[in-house]
Amino acid sequence: MKKALFPGSFDPFHNGHLEVVERASQLFDQVVVAAMRNPQKASPMFDLEERKSLIEASTSHLDNVEIVSLSTLVVDLARSLDVTVIVRGLRAVSDFESELQMAQMNRQLSGIDTVFIPTSSIYSFLASKLLREVALFGGDISAMVPPPVAKEFSSRFGGADGG
User: Known EC number(s) (predicted)?
Assistant: First the structure.
């Protein structure tokens, strides 16, 4: 069985992430999406359990996708889950350098290869950091995130559309 791990902070999970999960679910028998705590990023908008719940709701239409959360090295989780590959999404060529470096480090630490899935150009500008900023200033992000995420923003900020 080909099992893939798609790790990320997913704060928030957006349509570019969803596209990568949907495409990976067609390539692999099982995809584990791991919401991670990233100590290098500022305090999160959503805690790990909230992110896990939002990703579960956003991917509920995919039978071969499982959601977990973690606060450890990706390769340690990968080993414990017996995954055969790590999946990473690429928005633009600018993502490639840091993603390649992570892929090489993960391969050195674990022997697990990384597969890159480029997002469609309609999602190439999406970044969780930008979505958080837009939402905090009352901008409409509802078209850029799955409906469960838009609903959560709406309840938290008076509307994913800023209302």
Answer: 2.7.7.3
